[in-house]
Amino acid sequence: MLDGVPVKYVSWSREKNLKGIIKGTGYLCGCKDCKFTKALNAYEFERHAGCKTKHPNNHIYFENGKTIYAVVQELKSSPQEMLFEAIQNVTGSPINQKNFRIWKASYQAATRELQRIYGKDEVIVPS
């Protein structure tokens, strides 16, 4: 659902940075060799920026200045009934609405199945 959202790797020193675009579970790398044609995982994307850390998602930023890691933490702490709204707002960038609707429908179907199995009071269904 975040396909096409721009990101940037920024080193701690702020001396090194590299533009990228989210593609599936990776990043289209904007280095001079890849030119946004090669999808890399977070560690590879970081290497292409000329850096190496144990936690690259602490250095990959959305346009609103939040890191991938910070967004994940924010979503983890969002109340379940507010999750869909939070996903659409937390990155500061437009998300892929078609993929979001597919994911949302799948999430709601799984939640209904959990309610059927465990009882309605045990699982909250966001609207």
TrEMBL record:
<dbReference type="GO" id="GO:0042393">
    <property type="term" value="F:histone binding"/>
</dbReference>
<dbReference type="InterPro" id="IPR032308">
    <property type="entry name" value="TDBD"/>
</dbReference>
<dbReference type="GO" id="GO:0005634">
    <property type="term" value="C:nucleus"/>
</dbReference>
<dbReference type="GO" id="GO:0045944">
    <property type="term" value="P:positive regulation of transcription by RNA polymerase II"/>
</dbReference>
<keyword id="KW-0539">Nucleus</keyword>
<feature type="domain" description="Tify">
    <location>
        <begin position="20"/>
        <end position="75"/>
    </location>
</feature>
<protein>
    <recommendedName>
        <fullName>Tify domain-containing protein</fullName>
    </recommendedName>
</protein>
<dbReference type="Pfam" id="PF16135">
    <property type="entry name" value="TDBD"/>
</dbReference>
<dbReference type="GO" id="GO:0000977">
    <property type="term" value="F:RNA polymerase II transcription regulatory region sequence-specific DNA binding"/>
</dbReference>
<dbReference type="GO" id="GO:0003682">
    <property type="term" value="F:chromatin binding"/>
</dbReference>
